[in-house]
């Protein structure tokens, strides 16, 4: 699950800027092939790949496997995130069929529909204007489907030219407590107005 702001990504369950749902072995194959393509492109063109270029490469690879004899299609959907040369963040999703789409916020996996509906209602540029607001929106979205509070949530922020920043369980739990307090206060206000 990922949100985009102008300067950073707020991502949950992410590894090496690539989050996937499906067969882990297929994910490893795709990641390795994508790394080789990135290196080959860098040697040939002398520029790093764009996020769209590597997404298109992965989608094409998946598409080829859907049409070839003797091979099964890759059983994996993926979120691919990164920054273009101009610093603008990009988020793409690829399907097992080989199609890809660009998003501002997206989710894949179990209960994705519930989280997607939450994001459609609550995602705005103002809602993710700061790190804190984006993190809060990401956690609120995941709390729609996670029953055990912050225990089953992993959260990371990716900034341009900086390493992936993972949040500790303690930081996530403090955000969950804050969100729950806000929910209780809003429910009390609703009851008073009735």
UniProtKB/TrEMBL annotation:
InterPro entries: Ntn_hydrolases_N, Proteasome_alpha, Proteasome_alpha-type, Proteasome_sua/b. GO terms for biological process: meiotic cell cycle; proteasomal protein catabolic process; regulation of meiosis I. Pfam families: Proteasome (PF00227). Keywords: Proteasome. GO terms for cellular component: nucleus; proteasome core complex, alpha-subunit complex; spermatoproteasome complex. It comes from the Eukaryota. Gene3D superfamilies: Glutamine Phosphoribosylpyrophosphate, subunit 1, domain 1 (3.60.20.10). Belongs to the peptidase T1A family. This is Proteasome 20S subunit alpha 8. It comes from Pelodiscus sinensis.
